[in-house]
Write a structure and sequence with these properties.
It is a single chain. It contains 11 helices and 10 strands. It is α/β, with parallel strands linked by helices. The protein folds into 2 domains: about 60 residues, no CATH class; about 190 residues, Vaccinia Virus protein VP39 (Rossmann fold, 3-Layer(aba) Sandwich), CATH 3.40.50.150. The strands form 2 sheets. A 7-stranded mixed β-sheet has the order 6-2-1-7-8-10-9. Helix 1 runs parallel beside helix 3. The protein starts with a helix and ends with a strand. It holds the Pfam family CheR_N.
């Protein structure tokens, strides 16, 4: 819970007007990002910020884009993807139809990474990947499937470390200073807005990835979101978290079994 009264009142107003709940985000992180937004937009006080964003939806969308975190890259933490290949793919292959949820997908790099992995493992044609985020601007970039060509050297190295089986350049077309991900990777992806702090389960999944998102929530919200994932997973479904995240404070901690302790991959067992 945000204990700074001024910030708490502002965030309560945001929740009341727009339905976006940031009150259970980690306080230091959300306060820092709000202050950075105020400084970059030359807003002198929280009262002025409230007037700015609560009466103007365009200003609020800009606010959301700025304070939500969108740090990502292709095959980020490559050994996580290598572990998926080793410990999860064979079990997913037993399902006739596979549903995956990538929660907090940002600008889509993780989504396309998983699509490439599933293509190489022969699963993509019978998989639907639901990619969600609170940030509509980030989601639009993810839908477009375009990223900077300057990133390709690093992404290629990550791909190879993740156990990539082909030439990484097979999956995109370069044009000017950008690359476009192959259309076949995008055809089984559904992008939509979802607010982990407020929204409910919307399907049953065999695999849920939510990596480097929970670190921005307080313990109470982390537990709430883990329960949401538990309710959204089929029996013996898999959950992947970021390498600094855990189930330690989750109410449903004992309902999961560790598949890979280091890479934070879990299986729902009860």
């Amino acid at each position: 819970m945000i204990v700074n009264e001024e910030f708490r009142q502002f965030l309560e107003s945001v929740r009341f007007v727009y339905g976006y709940d940031f009150t259970e985000y980690a306080e230091a992180s959300v306060v820092r990002r709000i202050r950075a937004f105020m400084e970059s937009n030359k807003v002198g006080s929280l009262k002025d910020l409230g007037i700015m964003v609560l009466k103007d939806e365009t200003a609020f969308e800009h606010f959301i884009q700025e304070i939500t975190v969108n740090v990502t890259e292709m095959f980020r933490d490559p050994l996580f993807y290598k572990s998926l290949r080793k410990n999860v793919v064979n079990r997913l292959a037993t399902y006739p139809f596979i549903k995956v949820w990538i929660a907090g997908c940002s600008t889509g790099e993780e989504v396309y990474s998983l699509a490439i992995l599933f293509r190489e493992e022969g699963l993509l044609d019978r998989t639907v990947i639901y990619a969600t985020d609170i940030n509509q601007d980030a989601l639009q970039k993810a839908k477009e499937g375009i990223c900077s060509i300057q990133s390709m050297k690093n992404y290629t190295e990550n791909y190879l470390k993740a156990g990539g089986k082909n030439s990484f350049s097979d999956y995109y077309k370069a044009k000017y200073n950008s690359v476009l991900w192959d259309k076949s990777l995008r055809q089984n992806i559904v992008f939509s807005v979802h607010n982990l702090a407020m929204d409910k389960s919307f399907n049953e999944f065999q695999l849920i990835l939510c990596r480097n998102v929970l670190i921005y929530f307080n313990q109470s919200l982390q537990s709430k979101v883990i329960t949401l994932f538990y309710e959204s997973l089929c029996p013996f479904g898999f959950l992947g978290l970021g390498n600094k995240e855990s189930l330690l404070f989750a109410e449903k901690q004992r309902s999961f079994e560790e598949i890979d302790k280091k890479e934070k991959i879990f299986m729902k067992v009860k």
